[in-house]
Amino acid sequence: MIEEVINSFDYIVQLKEKGMITWEEIFPSFYSIAKNNFKVIQENGLLEDVKKILAYTKPLKTLSEERKERRLEGLKDSLKILKERYLVDEVLEKPEKKLAPLTDIKYIKKVGTKRALILNKLGIFSLKDFFYYPPRDYEDRRKVVKIFNAKEDEKVVIIGNVVKSEEVKINKGLTIYNFSVEDDSGVIIVTFFNQDYVKSYLKRGVKSAFYGKIEYSYGMKQMKSPDFQVIESDEDFKSEILPVYPLTFGIFQTTMRRIAKEAIQQTYFLEEFLPEEFVQEFNLLDLKKRIKGIHFPLSIYHKERSWYSLKYEEAILFELAMIYLKLKMKEMKKGETKEIKGELTKKFLNTLNFELTQAQKRSYEEIRKDLISPYPMNRLLQGDVGSGKTVVSELAIIDVCEAGYQAAVMNPTSVLAKQQFKKLSKDLEPLGLKIVLLTGDTKESDKILIKEKLKLGEIDVVVGTHAIIQQDVEFKKLGLVVIDEQHRFGVNQRLELIKKGNHPDILVMTATPIPRTLAMTFYGDLDVSLIDEMPKGRRPIKTILIAESNRKSLYEFVKEELDQGNQVFFVYPLIEESEALELKNAISMYEELSKVFEEYKVGLLHGRLSPSEKNDVMDKFVQKEYDILVSTSVVEVGIDIPDATVMVIEHPDRFGLSQLHQLRGRVGRSDKQSYCFLVIDDDANNEIKSKMNSFSKTLDGFEVAEIDLKWRGPGKFFGVEQHGIPEFKFLDLVEDINIIENSRKKVERFLATIQSFDRYPNLKHELQTRYGDSIHLVNVL
Ligand SMILES: Nc1ncnc2c1ncn2[C@@H]1O[C@H](COP(=O)(O)OP(=O)(O)OP(=O)(O)O)[C@@H](O)[C@H]1O
């Protein structure tokens, strides 16, 4: 460890100080330490520093005693800098009382019931929550400077005596308090606004340390509203790096720090839970040090190493949970293997007027293997919009039903369930399969009947919303669950399903083109089949930016398309602040378009319609009773209308790029040339234009996702609800991809060597408390 190297250097200097070795002996000792630890020194980026130190100790014969002394001083200074940068060790004092990490935060000194409620708002409920509450920034209060040397704009500490004070009442609402503060190099004016309590602290003659930014005002140095600490002598000032926490109404930074000081003392009792091999491999700080280091680091290096170590801790635990779960799910036997005949699928494939793409064939093959295998399938079918995932899932459904099992197909909304149901009945009924729709809107009497039939095995396929699993639906022999998802369908829910059937096979479909690295994280517990190829004959959709003032020419173009029998979407964004406004926009657009295209039929779809009204509008558009569909963003997923060739998106800047990509994917689903128009305000800023421009240049969903992720960051990219994915406190899903990948690889190797976590009780406990609920580890650990 690098600390040991530095400590050894230090030790030798101490020996010299005590006169136990000669000056000439320093060099060989240093040299051999450096040589023996070359790798560590290099890995820590210390080579240059060490070379410099060695240069001080070169045993030159001609050196006078005085120069030797000077060199020794230089050596000590360099070592000090090095130590400061790499310092992470501090002896923690043992607190009087040991508290369990899960102790309610209200029992921590300086907290109490009232403050606890405020801390709860910050997500801090227990002592442990405080340990893992990351500061948003730090204040480096180690830089104490003389007033004379303080530079403009620099944040520093100055220590001086108050020599003068004045109070200036500017108006009724504003009083300014000025204090002249002096040290042996100069004077600075310290100013506070309306904070009359400072008067009672900063009396004339009082010594105080001030931390703040240096400004200039009327030729004088000034600090505005600095933090200050009244002290007896210079030595009383503790130079340290202080955390700056994210706060909420009702709590001050100083209070948070005081609580932090109390809480962090308890790290004394923490025991490492990461297995030694992880700590070694990634060179992590020990648990105590890394927790302390994010709150009260001893050096900038300590802070950085702590953040780095906690990122690893987070990634390692998450990957352990996900991959272990995946392994365990794989071990659960299905009970009986399915006998896949493949007769019906052959028949089905013959009815299609196209051939499967290579990617579709490959994905189906992977799925079939899973179906036959004695272990349950947990597979993600990922493919860009319009890449033909539905057909692949149909093949799986047919196989399973032919083998005598039932299948359930779940959708995020009842409107999509209805559309899906229509598509599936059209394809599957001719093969003799019985298929029903079951959603919240199904009549009560029908529901009872459907449930009865599912239980008796008289229905082969049930299509519905995700609620199917929550309802008291029983199956005779559930063999396959297809989950069409917009967002992530939680692992929990999948486990729920496993409980329902005799370990049914699970196929999750997603068109969200999550960048590969992230997909591994978010779907780490699933096997992945990727449809990375579009059906033949598709013409690339043309994406065109059009200025609002050019709307007329857009309408002319739309008219031409309509004249050729094609259909057109006009989509309005969801305006978060005002659903009413969104509606108004869509409605007024609907009215305008009905006039502009009076010889055509225009439909209107928005969130305020009841599901049956929505279905009605969709049906009419599918049946070509409407030529134009004006819609709010509810149209986003899963609608397949081959004759739709134009997608007009109003205010595209209000959408995320991935969402735009989904919308664009509603057209171009046949061999017809399709278009996507992005109507941009005339006064749109350059950022919007360049973003839309880069979007218009690519049709690759993964590329779009990468751009989107960069622009919006992972939080917004995945939406507010992350569905079963815990929020990370330290990891940044974009920046820390390497850490996530390294951890995953190491975790895979680690799990391959252990049978259970029994030999790692601390780790097991940590996994349970952290992910027991969200990843449902309780069942498998
Ligand atoms: N191999 C193929 N060749 C030609 N057309 C195909 C092929 N596979 C599917 N299609 C057709 O392409 C259209 C889109 O397919 P599908 O609805 O399955 O896409 P998807 O991947 O589910 O899209 P989305 O994610 O947008 O819902 C459908 O009309 C389907 O019939």
UniProtKB/TrEMBL annotation:
Pfam families: DEAD, Helicase_C, RecG_dom3_C, RecG_N, RecG_wedge. InterPro entries: ATP-dep_DNA_helicase_RecG (IPR004609), DEAD/DEAH_box_helicase_dom (IPR011545), Helicase_ATP-bd (IPR014001), Helicase_C-like (IPR001650), NA-bd_OB-fold (IPR012340), P-loop_NTPase (IPR027417), RecG/Mfd (IPR047112), RecG_dom3_C (IPR045562). Residues 550-710 form the Helicase C-terminal domain. SUPFAM superfamilies: Nucleic acid-binding proteins (SSF50249), P-loop containing nucleoside triphosphate hydrolases (SSF52540). CDD domains: DEXHc_RecG (cd17992), RecG_wedge_OBF (cd04488), SF2_C_RecG (cd18811). Transmembrane segments: none annotated. Keywords: ATP-binding, DNA damage, DNA recombination, DNA repair, DNA-binding, Helicase, Hydrolase, Isomerase, Nucleotide-binding. It is an enzyme of class 5 (isomerase). Its EC number is 5.6.2.4. It comes from the Bacteria. One of its GO terms (biological process) is DNA repair. It catalyses: ATP + H2O = ADP + phosphate + H(+); Couples ATP hydrolysis with the unwinding of duplex DNA by translocating in the 3'-5' direction. The keyword Isomerase applies. Residues 370-531 form the Helicase ATP-binding domain. SMART domains: DEXDc, HELICc. Gene3D superfamilies: Nucleic acid-binding proteins (2.40.50.140), P-loop containing nucleotide triphosphate hydrolases (3.40.50.300). GO terms for molecular function: 3'-5' DNA helicase activity; ATP binding; ATP hydrolysis activity; DNA binding. Belongs to the helicase family. RecG subfamily. Plays a critical role in recombination and DNA repair. Helps process Holliday junction intermediates to mature products by catalyzing branch migration. Has replication fork regression activity, unwinds stalled or blocked replication forks to make a HJ that can be resolved. Has a DNA unwinding activity characteristic of a DNA helicase with 3'-5' polarity. This is ATP-dependent DNA helicase RecG. The lineage of its organism: Bacteria, Thermotogati, Thermotogota, Thermotogae, Petrotogales.
